[in-house]
Amino acid sequence: MRGHIPEVTDTQEELAEKRRGRLIGEFWYRFGGNRAGVAGLALVASFCVIALLAPWIAPFGQMDSSAGPALSPPTSRNILGTDDLGRDILSAIIYGARPSLLVGILSAGIAAILGTVVGIVSGYYGGSIDDILMRFTEMVMTIPIFVLAVIIVTFFGSSMPFVVMTIALLIWPGTARVTRSETMRIEKMEFVNVARSFGASTREIITGELLPNIVGPIVVTWTLCVGFSILMAAGLSFIGLGDINYPDWGYMLQRSMAFINRAWWMSVFPGISIFLVVLAFNLIGDAISDAFSPKAITGEK
Predict the structure, then answer these.
(1) pLDDT at 198
(2) Judging by beta carbons within 10 Å of its beta carbon (0-12, 13-18, 19+), is residue 97 exposed, middle or buried?
(3) Class of domain 33-298
(4) Domain-by-domain residue ranges, the chain?
C-alpha cells in the first residue's frame, strides 16, 4: 500500500502539469489570433529592447549638447531634431524610455500585489473583514489620484523610488475590487469545496485553487495600470515633479512648452512615444481579456 500511494500522487501531478501546459498553449493560441494584441506586445517588446540597449543604439548621449545646432528641425544628422540646448531628440527619447517604462511597470506590479492580497483576503473571508477592507478601498478610490500624487510628491520628494511607491499606493484599489469579485465567484465553485472536503488548508486553497483561476483578470488589470502609471509619471514630470536625475518623456514635454511655436518636434515625438506605449499596453490587456473570456475558451461566437 505504501508503495502505491506515491505512484498515484506522481500520476496526478503529471496530469496537472500537462493540463497547465495545455491551458498555457491554448491561451497563447487565442492571444496570437488577436492581431491588435500581438501588435501591442511587439511594440512593448520593442520599447523594452530600446530602453535596455539605449547606450549602444542612441546616436548621441542623453545630455550631449553638441549633437547639433540648438532647435534644429529633423535632419539626416538629427532625425528627430534637437532641443534648445542642442541635444538630440531621438537620443533623449531612447534614454527616456528607461525611466518611463520602469516607473510604469514597477508601480503597476506593486499595485497588483497589494490589490491581489487585499482582494483575496476580502473575498475569501468576507464578513467584517470584507466590510473594512472594501470601505477603505472605496475611500481611496474617491480621492483624486493625480492631485493627491502631486501633494505627496511635493511635500515628501520626487525621487524615482518614491514616485513609484506613491503611484502604486494610489492605483491598487482597481485590482483589489477585480480580485475580490473573482475570488467570491470562484470560492463558491465545486472544485474549491472538494479541496476543502479533502482537508486543504486556507493557504493551499488560495495558492492552489483561487490564484491560478484569477490570474487572467489580474494580468489584464496590471497591463492597464502600467499605461496609467506611465501617464501619471509623465504628468508629474510635466509639472516639474519628476526625478530630474532620470529625465523621462514627461520631462521632455515640459522642456518643449517654452518652444512650442518654434520647435514642434520637441513636443510631438515624446508625445507620440507616450501615446504608443500606453496604447500598446491597453491592446495587450484587451487581447488577454479576450483570450481568457469564456466565449474564447469554449469557441463560441
Answers:
(1) 80
(2) buried
(3) mainly alpha
(4) 33-298
